[in-house]
Amino acid sequence: MSMFDTMLKDGESLFKNEIALDFSFQPKLIPHRESEQRLIINAIKPLLQRRNGRNLILTGKPGIGKTALTRHVLQILEDESETLPEEESAEVMTVFINCWKKNTSFKIAEDICHQIGYMLTQNKRTDELLGMIVRIANKKSVVLVFDEIDKVDDHDFLYTLLEELYRKTIILITNYDEWYAGMDERIRSRFMPEMVRFEPYSARATRDILDQRKEYAFVPGVWEDEAFDLVVDKAFEVEDIRTGLQVMKEAGIAAEDKASRKIGNEHVGTALKKAERFAIKDSDQLEEETQTILDIVKGHSGKRIGDLFRLYEAGGGKLNYKSFQRKIKKLADNSYVTTEKQTGGANGTTTFVSYGKEKKLTDF
Ligand SMILES: Nc1ncnc2c1ncn2[C@@H]1O[C@H](COP(=O)(O)OP(=O)(O)OP(=O)(O)O)[C@@H](O)[C@H]1O
Ligand SMILES: [Mg+2]
What we know:
Helix content is 46%, strand content 13%. By secondary structure, it is an alpha/beta fold. The chain has three domains: 34-197, Rossmann fold (3-Layer(aba) Sandwich); 201-274, Helicase, Ruva Protein, domain 3 (Orthogonal Bundle), CATH 1.10.8.60; 283-363, Winged helix-like DNA-binding domain superfamily/Winged helix DNA-binding domain (Arc Repressor Mutant, subunit A, Orthogonal Bundle), CATH 1.10.10. It has a five-stranded parallel beta sheet, with helices on both faces. It has a three-stranded antiparallel beta sheet with strand order 6-8-7. Strand 7 (337-345) and strand 8 form a beta hairpin. Helix 6 packs parallel to helix 7 (185-191) and helix 8 crosses helix 10. It is globular and about 65 Å long. It starts with 33 loop residues before the first helix and ends in a 9-residue tail after the last strand. Bound molecules: adenosine-5'-triphosphate and magnesium ion. Magnesium ion (MG) binds next to helix 2.
């Protein structure tokens, strides 16, 4: 084989469909979540017979398919309703809200309005918007999903929806099993959800899911078996498919940078090292202010929180220091950043903030 056969030519790519590795890409199938899928569908089913649905809380660690599966089920529901005759087809409306992006009752109400086709939201108050939602949704049935529900502190919207919608399934998604126990009693007494706990995938399932995505994203045959094994092992160790996808993408890029026709161990190694500290979620998911703060940490990783706050203020940031600290804490709770406290310096206790996840992938 000539030297050139192992080299990628100009304009050639190892990727067939790089978008398939993006966090927000919605795969056509969600294997290995069949029992969870059944539970969600069963909760929604009564709505199709004009009865009230049941409510659910989905919990589990990051990157194990909670969001992907829920979106998948909503998609099934929408596809099915398109095939029904007109008079039945509009029976169940679906709404999906990311509560980190929409983190107040007002923003949530506004987003729901838009999703159910009510656009005249300008200059309206939260209660007016909620009233409109109830009017529209009560003509039919509705499935409402609130992903990342723990990111919103104000639950007034939930109370109104629980109280006033007749035929509904409300699905809340969070990483924290214990989150629901801390909810307001007036909400809990109405909500009465079934809890669905997502367990991390087995080694076999992890391989299967990543393999499926690999086939979709890459030109056939570009992965060396051993290198792919390494990715699977890593994703299984950290119990996070998202991490596996990110490593696959970075390894592909590393191989292309070297004009290699194959993705081998060394490229996976580069991917792991290059992205030493992986941010575990897509930062597009963050609301604007938090996104700004994360960008500052990213540009000045390892600095004192006070210094970061000054940079934030200098850039026109309007939050006070306490709120800024709270945002940093939320980012840390969700592994976007890592904080480290140091006591006993000249300034008493200081917190240092770094970009990315606490545990380096190369630490495992
Ligand atoms: N069973 C599966 N089949 C196909 N893809 C999957 C499966 N499980 C997870 N994924 C993929 O892994 C990535 C992470 O999944 P997802 O976003 O659903 O995680 P999550 O459980 O919602 O995590 P988080 O709590 O961090 O929001 C997505 O790109 C998703 O498509
Ligand atoms: Mg999710």
